[in-house]
Amino acid sequence: MKFAKRLVASALVVSMLGLTAPVQAAMLPTDSVLSVGQNPQQRDAVAAFMAREDVRQQLQHLGVDPQQASERVAALSDAEIADLNGKIADLPAAGSDVLGVLLFLFILLLVTDILGLTKVFPFTRSVR
């Protein structure tokens, strides 16, 4: 019995030594992690949309500071910018669905406030 326990323990030690892999840690530049700016045309299109006067007026009407909304949109990831740009591109030429995009931005900012990532609205409490 004692011999079997020693044999199993030795086999486990040998197998654990064989499983270790070399580990290397290094600093990564921020650009490689965030990959911000991969598609500047989409960011420019969204920024131009946010700079429109009717969009700014609608944001103010909803109680959102246009400057803070623009800063928050500038901090979006590339995937979020592509999604938002797709929604803007699908809008009619007359811009009758601006309310939908503004509602999307409002909900996005509201969710980020609740998650504690931003503090745009004074009426929200962070879950953090």
Tell me, what's the shape? elongated
Query: What level of helicity do the residues show?
Result: 55-70%
**The biggest beta sheet, please?**
none
Succession of helices and strands: HHHHHHH
Distance between the termini: 54 Å
Structural class by secondary-structure content: mainly alpha
Q: Which segments are poorly predicted (pLDDT under 50) over 5 or more consecutive residues?
A: none
| Proportion in β-strands | under 5%
Summed over residues and divided by their number, the pLDDT gives a mean of 77
- Radius of gyration from the alpha-carbon trace, in angstroms: 25 Å
Count of helices?
7
| Total DSSP E strands | 0
Q: Can you give a write-up of this model?
A:
The protein is mainly alpha-helical and 128 residues long. The chain has a domain at 34-114. It has 7 helices and no strands. The chain is elongated and about 85 Å long. The mean pLDDT is 77.
Jot down its keywords.
single chain, 128 residues, mainly alpha, 7 helices, 0% strand
